[in-house]
Each structure stands twice: as structure tokens, then as C-alpha cells.
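User: Predict the structure for this protein chain, please.
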Amino acid sequence: MRIGFALPQFGPLAHQPEDIARFARQAEELGADSLWVGDRLLAPVDPSVGYGGTDAIPPEFRTALDPFTVLATAAAATERVRLGSDVINAPWYPPAVLARSLTTIDLLSGGRLLVGLGTGWSPEEYEAVDIPMSERGRRLDECLDALHAWWTENPVEYRGDHWTVPASHIDLKPASRPHPPVYLAAFAPAAVRRVARRADGWLPVAVVPAKPGAPDPIAALTEQLGGVRAAVEREGRDPAAFDVILRINPSADASVDDIVTTLVRAEREAGVQHAFVDPTYLAKNADQALDLVERVLERARPS
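Assistant: Here is the predicted structure, written as C-alpha cells:
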């Protein structure tokens, strides 16, 4: 299994941006296969929708670094690891701006970018970027169309209901050909159908350890993955060529045993070949995050 880790981006780690390059470089040296960012804009004082099925926003989300800058920093500091987003909230960004940023990062990394896109869940964040949240699904579809045109055509032109790219010469294309792989996060039926039609892979999440009364995360993942692959097959695509990258979100009381057990079970029971661990709730600084990287890799890959 390929094992990655989230970059220092949220919570106390966000107050130490000077450690991003060191973390990325040392995580690669320790054997990490991928490094990841997310996309948080703000933490509302009185959220209308909480995080992860709760009524609140984690205090760690009160501090967040820009995902594109963090990825670019990691790209410059590393040589081998893949660099991914889980996820960039695509409807927040005009596709031309998003395409330029992603193309730059893919070129900086020599074609190591994994583009993970989603729609987010916070109405207040949509209010802050002045985009109607009710349009998020349609805007994501248009964004996917516009990105494909930007990456594969020249001149580029795209005209949709929400986004427009006037006919333009775009000579700079990604290092990855025909373009970086695009992954989507999805749980609702309509979103799963979009994944099956349009994505190179799916981005599920497992919370570790499971909350009291919650389903077993790997059993739930196995069932969900069966549904996603069936939807891929219904679209006339090959499920065997469809990728899955699992995000493991350890809570503050998670142990290394919890994390490693989840990695092992995800591979054995669900067939997951790539997963990454987010140390946001377990590390207060880059050294603690790197210690977690080392311990997880040592336990998950015994000599």
C-alpha cells in the first residue's frame, strides 16, 4: 500500500509555515508516498452547518493556510512523492484561475499532482466567496469541463451558464499528459454518479477510531466502494482502472495502533492501495507530525 500524510496546514501547524518544506522533505525521506492539502477558508462563529455531522467547527479550522501555496512549497522541497488535494472546493474558484494554479503546481513537481476536487459543506464559506451554495453541483460540472479544455486544447474556449473562458491561447500545459488525474469526493447519490461518469478515482474518508454508535469505518467503506464501482461499470467504464485514495482522519485520542489497523484493514478488506493520514488533531508542531509519520510507516511496513 502507498501511504501518505497531510501537510502542516491547519490548527497549530498553520502557525509554523516555515516548517512546511522541512516536513515535506523529511516525510519523503522517511518513505511517505504522497503529501496532501485540504481547503478551509474560515470557521464561522455561529455555523449553520457543523463539521462531520456535529453542530460545531473544530478549533483547528480557525487557522488555515492556502492549499495552493502549501502544495507549491512541498513540490519545490521534494522529488518523488505525489502531491494531492483532498479536496479543493472547486466551485469557489473561476476555472481559469484554478487551472492556472494547478498547472503551475504540476509543472513545479514534474507531473506529480493528484487533483482532488469537491464542493465543501459550509454555507458561510460560500457566502464569503459570493457563490450561491445551491449552484455548487452545476458549477463543479462546468469546472470539470473547463479544466479539461484548458489542459487539452489550444486555443481554449469554454462557455457555460456560470463560467466562461473566452477563446484564448494557453500554451502552458501540465507535465502530466493528457492532464493530472482528477479525483472527486462524493457520498450523495448524484455525486456518486458524477464520480462514476467523470473522475479517475474516488476520495472516501475513515474517522479513527469510530465514534460511539457509528458503523465500523472499513465495513462501511467496503460497502460504499462496491456501490461506486458498480456505478462506474454502469457508465461503461472499467472498475479495475478506477482508483481509490482513502483519507484517514485520526481524532485527538487515536493511537498509532488505531491508524495502522485501519490501513491494514483497508487494504485487506476493501482492496485500497493508497491511503493518507491527517495528523492535524495529533500534532502541535512539525516535529510531532514527523514522529507520527515515522511511527506509522515503521508499524505499517515492518522490515
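The radius of gyration is 19 Å.
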